Every structure is written in structure tokens, then in C-alpha cells.
Amino acid sequence: MKKSKFDLAVGLFVATGILALVFLAMKVGNLTGLETSEGYRVEARFDNIGGLKVRAPVKSAGVVVGRVDSITLDSQTYEAKAILRIDQNYKFSKDTIASILTSGLLGEQYVSLEAGGDSVYLGQGDRISKTQPAMIMEKLISQFLFNKASESTGTTK
User: Fold this and answer.
1) Using the 8-state DSSP alphabet, how is residue 43 labeled?
2) Within a 10 A sphere around the Cβ of 42, how many other Cβ atoms?
3) Which of 8, 85, 102, 109 is the most exposed place for a label (fewest CB within 10 A)?
4) For position 156, what pLDDT does the model report?
5) DSSP labels for the chain?
6) CA 27 to chain centre
């Protein structure tokens, strides 16, 4: 009798652990949000999106206002085209600036929206014309090293 109670307790503990792992996996994959509101979709084009992924958050002032719906490459301009789904509760002006930022030093990338002062708002299918691409760490480091190398060769002449 005691052994069966112990086995039941161990089984419940293992099941709880598996459920916790599934929840964490969904949280990391941005799959926990079950949004019922469709919102409106806007387009933003970037020279480089870095590691931005579909379902990445769209934030304004640190508040999640939407998600990245899709990312494609425009075959004419060779720019990355991101479709952002913004919640209906949030309105952004036509002169909004979209930037790709990183949470922390090595965290996930997200799209940041900085609202402008225009009185006309973005609507379904509109395009955000002012964008800033992702900062790529490898490019920054190589540029820094190149500048340091050219400084050191310039001073020895």
C-alpha cells in the first residue's frame, strides 16, 4: 500500500515536470499568446533584419502591441519585407519609425515602433516608410577591428 502511494506521488511529480517543460518551450517559442483580435497589418521594409523571426513581438515604449506575421524578400529591391500585425487597440501615425532592436545583449530581436506626430494614422495594408535595420554584432566588431588596424598602420608611418 505504501509503495503504490509513493509511486503515485512520483508519477504526479514527473507529470508536473513534463507540463512545466512544455509550458517553457511554448513560452520561448512565443506560442503562449492566444490572440483573438485580428488587428490590422502594416508593411515595413528593412535593409537587414538580422535574426528577426516570425511571431517576434512588436513593441512600443516596451509594451507589446503586435507580432510579426511574415517575413519575405522582395525580389526587385532585395529588401526584407516584414508584415506586422498590430492590435486594433493601438493606433500609430503615418510617420512612425520602425526599428529592429535586441532585448539585452544577446536576447531575442523585436520590432520597435516610435510614433510620430502626424494626424493621419496607419491602416490595413499601409507601409511604414521610415525604418532602421538591425545592428549586426559581427559587422560592428569587424568595423571596429578594421578601424583599429588602420589607426595602428597610420601611426607607424
Assistant:
1) E
2) 24
3) 8
4) 47
5) -HHHHHHHHHHHHHHHHHHHHHHHHHHHTT---------EEEEEEES--TT--TT-EEEETTEEEEEEEEEEE-TTT--EEEEEEE-TT---BTT-EEEEEESTTT--EEEEEE--S-SSBP-TT-EE-EEEPPPPHHHHHHHHHHHHHHHHHHH--
6) 14
